[in-house]
Design brief:
The chain is α+β, with helices and mostly antiparallel strands. The chain is 29% helix and 26% strand. β9 and β10 form a beta hairpin. α4 (163-180) crosses α5 (187-201).
Length: 210
């Protein structure tokens, strides 16, 4: 695979629908302190049956933003049908494992533990207290659900990611693509294929110097 130059500069914005704009503003602006930085009031956009809507943005740092769409006259229950889980965008039936439901989330990073604990304090004093605080691999994170049911994470790095870990990540993904292209992929097959790739490529790697 040929190398492609990296031209993007991060996230401009991620956008989600909301059925509760008042609670959404309370959560992101009033509890977390993310300023409102832009809004679009749109009347008559799209096809004839497209509702009027407002598209509003919060600053999440580094010129990145999180945005929401509120469609006037579009009403639904955030809770969904009985037995369904998920958020206002995606619904999952009772047969879908909880780990799959929770895998959809947005993570925002902070610089250090002090900042992470400050956001924990703000959330714990609100209607959306922290549900989990976990250290995993190189990061520590707090989690809650926002008013729309979206899983929301704030995370901080416990140490830098090394170049060796970047290399390992690429080996893992190449092995994964090979394994899922075949019938009945398993974690064991992934590890076996990764080991094969290490043997195949090791001669081309430069030694690490301290």
């Amino acid at each position: 695979m040929s190398e492609r130059d990296h031209r993007v500069q991060g996230v401009d914005h991620v956008a989600f629908p909301t059925f509760d704009p008042a609670a959404t503003v309370r959560f992101y602006r009033d509890v977390l302190g993310f300023p409102v930085v832009h809004s679009i009031c749109a009347a008559g956009w799209g096809p004839e049956d497209h509702p009027d809507f407002i598209h509003f943005f919060f600053d999440i740092g580094n010129s990145d933003r999180i945005a929401f769409f509120y469609y006037f006259g579009t009403e639904t229950s955030v809770g969904g049908a009985e037995g369904e889980r998920g958020d206002v965008y995606a619904r999952f039936g009772a047969d879908v494992p909880e780990y799959f439901v929770r895998s959809r989330h947005l993570a925002i990073h902070v610089d250090d533990e002090e900042d992470l604990l400050e956001y924990r304090r703000r959330l714990d004093a609100s209607d959306w207290p922290v549900e989990m605080q976990i250290q995993h691999e190189t990061i520590e994170s707090i989690y809650t659900h926002d008013p729309n049911g979206y899983m929301f994470e704030i995370t901080r790095a416990m140490r830098p990611v090394t170049p060796q870990e970047d290399l390992d990540a690429n080996l893992t993904i190449d092995a994964l693509l090979d394994v899922v292209a075949e019938p009945e992929p398993t974690f064991g097959k992934l590890l076996a294929r990764k080991a094969e790739l290490i043997v195949e490529r090791a001669a081309d790697w430069e030694p690490v110097t301290s």
